[in-house]
Amino acid sequence: MSNFPRIPVLVYHKIAGPSEYDANPNTCVTPANFERQMDLMALMGYKTADPAEYFKARLGLASRLPKKPFLITFDDAFESVLTRALPVLEKKGFSAALFMVSSGFGRSAFWDEETDDSPNRLLEPSGLKKLRDAGWVIGSHGVSHRNFTDLDCTSLKDEASLSKKELEEALGSEVSWFAYPYGAYSPEAKRALAEAGYTMGFATEEGDGGLFSVPRRIISGKSGLLNFALRLRQAGKISIR
Ligand SMILES: [Zn+2]
């Protein structure tokens, strides 16, 4: 699939200024910076790809993609995605994919040891539904944010299929995309996703370009606009298998 269009995929976490509650402040992109980055994308003529069309293109089928397509993704499903990212994206006519930990509804990022009094809450099912109804893809990020390269085959299977089932029950619609916690995957992890019925798996920087190891560029709180543009360029250069 050497002529597959090189579609940049970006990954964000929180749209917020870092606070004392953040175990990992780099996962926060401020609302102002996020808006500037999206302004830049729109200015450069980028449009978000329709997920179904993106998938068709990945399979090498005829698809309808914009001239300069890209994908926006959010891991962990913080409330700030709904309250701060959605309004910015709607203004631009952009959509995104959100990856949720199925045991995390209304909780804090417990895997980062963020405590219950953290203002950075994870979305409730109602929030997820709002995003889905706005045209977003809701995908799975596992049951409990465990690192898939640390799991045996039984646990991989459980994380992949239980999270799919729990999210589908909460949403009342199908969940077919997955993002590996920490971006970490292995051949066994890919197989577990395929066997559980997912159609796509997203890694981060180390993704090798396969359907179950799509690389994404992490946009961190450290990314100024120049660095953002550079990362976008890198994303466009990734070769896809
Ligand atoms: Zn995560």
What's a quick, concise take on this entry?
With 241 residues, the chain is an alpha/beta fold. It has helices at 31-43, 51-58, 79-92, 125-133, 153-171, 187-196, 225-237; strands at 9-12, 14-15, 28-29, 47-48, 69-75, 97-100, 137-140, 177-179, 200-202, 217-218.
Detail the poorly predicted runs. Answer: none
What is the share of helical residues? 25-40%
- Average of pLDDT: 92
- For the record, the CATH architecture stands as Alpha-Beta Barrel
Counting H and I runs of at least 4 residues, what is the number of helices? 7
Could you name the CATH homologous superfamily?
Answer: Glycoside hydrolase/deacetylase
Which strand-content bin applies to the residues?
A: 5-15%
Form type: globular
Strand count, sense and barrel status of the largest sheet are: 6 strands, parallel
**What is the terminal-to-terminal distance?**
6 Å
Q: What ligands does this structure carry?
A: zinc ion
Tell me the number of strands. 10
Q: How many domains, in number, for the residues?
A: 1
**Secondary-structure-derived class:** alpha/beta
Q: SSE string, helix = H, strand = E?
A: EEEHEHEHEHEHEHEEH
Description:
With 241 residues, the chain is α/β, with parallel strands linked by helices. The protein has one domain: Glycoside hydrolase/deacetylase (TIM Barrel, Alpha-Beta Barrel), CATH 3.20.20. 36% of the residues lie in helices and 14% in strands. Helix 1 packs parallel to helix 3 and helix 5 runs parallel beside helix 6. The longest helix has 19 residues. The chain is globular and about 45 Å long. The chain starts with 8 loop residues before the first strand and ends with a helix. Zinc ion binds next to loops.
